[in-house]
Amino acid sequence: AQSVTQLDSQVPVFEEAPVELRCNYSSSVSVYLFWYVQYPNQGLQLLLKYLSGSTLVKGINGFEAEFNKSQTSFHLRKPSVHISDTAEYFCAVVNPQGGSEKLVFGKGTKLTVNP
Amino acid sequence: DTGVSQNPRHKITKRGQNVTFRCDPISEHNRLYWYRQTLGQGPEFLTYFQNEAQLEKSRLLSDRFSAERPKGSFSTLEIQRTEQGDSAMYLCASFLRGGNTGELFFGEGSRLTVL
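The joint structure predicted for all components is written out below.
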C-alpha cells in the first residue's frame, strides 16, 4: 500500500516570496507522483507530475517539483508566489502497476499568500 | 470548468434520511471515480467504475453506500440512513483509460451536511 505525508497543514507567505510545500511518500513499489491544486470553490486540477526521467519537473503557473528517491520526497516549489496562488495543494501517488489509476492523496497544505 | 459536473452542489439533510448524488463525467471517459473529502483531510478513494462495471470498492464504503453507473455514462452515489459522520465533500473524477497517467478530471464536488 502507498501513503503520502504532507508535513505542513498551513503555509502562510508574503507575495513575491519563495515557497516550498513538502511531501514525503511511502511505498514498497515504484510509484508515480503528482501535485494537485484546489482553488476555493473549485475542483482539483493537476499541477504537475513525475513519471520517470528528469527528477525536476515543471508544471503550470510557475511551479516545479523535485523527485528524490533516496529521501522518498517530492517537494513543490515556486520562486515567487502571487496572491492568486492561494489554494490548497495535495500531493498524491499512484501505483502504475495497479492498473486502476487510483490516486492516494496526502492531507493537503493550505497555502495563503498575503500582500 | 473540467467538464465533470456534480449535482447537487450542496445538500443538507437530517440524520436517517437517504441522499443521492449524481456525477456526469467527460463524455468519452470510460473510468469514473468517487472520493470523499472531510475537513482537514485529503480526498479518500471510495470506488471506481470502468464503463458500467464497478471494479473496486474501498472499505470506507459501508453497506449504507451504493454507487452505480448503469449505462457507463453518469453515475450516482446513494447514502442510506445518513449519519453525522457522513458529512463531507463527495468528489467525482473521470479518466480516459489510455490517457495521461494520473490525470484525473475532478468535478467541483457535492457537499453533504447531516444534521
